[in-house]
Structures are given as C-alpha cells and as structure tokens.
Amino acid sequence: MQRSPIKHCRECGTTVHYRLPDDGDTKLRAICPACHTVHYENPLNVVGTVPYLGNQVLLCKRNIEPRRGKWTLPAGFMELGESTSEGAARETAEEAGAQFIMEDLLTVMSVPRVGQVHLYYRARLTSDVFDPGHETMEARLFYEDEIPWDELAFRTVKETLEHYFADRRLGRFATHAFDIA
Amino acid sequence: MQRSPIKHCRECGTTVHYRLPDDGDTKLRAICPACHTVHYENPLNVVGTVPYLGNQVLLCKRNIEPRRGKWTLPAGFMELGESTSEGAARETAEEAGAQFIMEDLLTVMSVPRVGQVHLYYRARLTSDVFDPGHETMEARLFYEDEIPWDELAFRTVKETLEHYFADRRLGRFATHAFDIA
What we know:
2 copies of one chain form a homodimer. Chain A is an alpha+beta fold. Chain A has helices spanning 84-96, 155-170; strands spanning 17-19, 29-31, 38-39, 44-53, 56-62, 71-72, 75-77, 100-111, 116-125, 136-143, 176-179. In chain A, strands 4, 5, 6, 7, 8, 9, 10 and 11 form an 8-stranded mixed beta sheet that branches. A 3-stranded antiparallel beta sheet of chain A has the order 1-2-3, with no helix packed on it. The longest helix of chain A has 16 residues, at 155-170. At the A-B interface, helix 1 and strand 8 of A face helix 1 and strand 8 of B.
C-alpha cells in the first residue's frame, strides 16, 4: 500500500491505536484513545490527459522521482476543490505548459496495490508550442510508431496509450474501466 | 469541502501550520514545524452499483444519517486495497445483502463541493431475495415508473438512475463522466 501508518491523532496529537471501531465497521482504523477520533485512509486519484495533435500525442520526460528520465503522460494527484477533468487539465498545464481543449474520459484504472485510481481524458492540443514546468525535462510530440514503449514511466500510461491508439483506429472513442493487479 | 483542518502531525503529534511547501507546490498544506512532514488531503471516492433484475432496479432505504429514510443505490467510500469495482461490489453486499454479477462502469461524477468522486457500476441481480445490513431499513425492487424520484437521498443517485434508464431505452450502455456543481 506504500502508506506509513498514522502515529498521532490529527485532532489532539495523542498516539493512536489501530483497532476496530465501535460502530460495526469491519476494518482496523487508527483511533485516538483520548478524543476518540477515527482516522480513515482512502485511495488517491491520479488524473491526467492524452494530449494529441493530428496523429501525434504529447509525452513528457520526467524530471522528478519516481522514474526520472522516463516518458509519461501529464498527470498528478487530484486536489480538493476540483473535478477529475479540472485536475487533469491543471496537471497538463503545469507539466507540459500545453494549450488544449479537454475531451472525454478515456481510461479509469484501479491500482489497488498502491491504493490509487488513475483517470485519463483525451485533450486536443491547439498549439505545438509547449512550456513545461520543473517536473518535466522535455515535452514533445510522438507518432504512434515513435512511442518509446520500453521507456514509459508507468503501466497506466502504457495501457492508456494502447487504448487511445486502438480506439483511434476504430474511429470511435469509449471509456475503458479496468483493474491493474 | 466539509473537512476539518488538520491540527496535529500524524508522525510526531506536533501542532501543524498551514503554509506553502518549499518544493514549488502552489497550495497551502498542513506542515509539521518539528519533523517537516507535509500532510496532503485529497478527494474521496464513493463507489456503488445499480443492481437490476429484468426491468426493475434495487433501491435501499437509508437507516443512517445523512438522509435517513431516503432511498439510495448501494454505495460507500472506497477502501485501500480494493479496486473501484471491488468496492462497489462490497458495498452492494453489505448494504443490500444482494447476490449479483458486476457489469460495466455507468457513471463517473465529480462533486468538487464536497471533495468526492462517485463511480457507479451496473450489477445484474441473480436473486430477488435481499438481506440488508444495519445501514439499510429496507431493500426492494422498483420499476422505472415506481422510482421515488422526490425521495432519493443524493443527486448522484438521481443522475445515475436517469442515465441507467436512458441507456436501457437506447439498448446500449456507455460510461457517463460529468461534474456536479
């Protein structure tokens, strides 16, 4: 799960204990013995886009860990106060400095091993000029036969690109929801 | 957002301050002045199903707040260690005690006002006998013209049922992704 256990209560700072709550809940939760706050931990959403221009898609070379130097689609953790598509647009602006119009949801991928759900939208680029942020070494367009399949940062990126090109060949885009073990 | 601010560090219990982190992040985060842990808060996923049997769908009368006594589709917070569809199946078993086969993703609805994303799958019931848990007063099947539209617990439930019946009339189900202001 790659999450460190909660040690202290967010309300009062007391050391918590992991135990079953008294309300019928069947999962162990970090519970404060002083103020009785129950702390829940839940999966995180990662939101991003497949930015495309004609027959090309935009990839970003990562300038941060994990997978520094590998290629990825622009994506990042969804924030409070935004929708999935607003978060995907924000990450695309931040990581690629791209100009684009958001389109439909392409993939919804659960990755329970790391407690994440990844959602990617298609985004139609309106310019081929990019101004990537500090998280990106380089942003450039690739034709399908140029995609560095062995140098992609994440399995979710590979799956999303495969669905994008497959749907494109079919001439019809759908939303693909599946789990990644 | 309906979240109370973090007061204490989960690692060491020290009182946190909300400020901009030093890593280029542009959002205020709860940061520990003692151990420097940055605490992130992110949207939560609510996962559920539209359980159907022939031309009927299953609704549950809520036995818990909020909206006690109102009708809902079985749904709840996604947990660590499960996928969206596994969470939706778990909630359907817990809240309705139904037997069913999971089908495709029907709706993905962002509700930024409350920091949530709601995802509903279709689920084909294999029995008309239900054994609802303590969160449900009553679980029963409704034909479309019997749905208590004015007694539904949540806007996301109404939108999901509307898409279910509209797609059913079309004879073709799709995944519908949209935001609820």
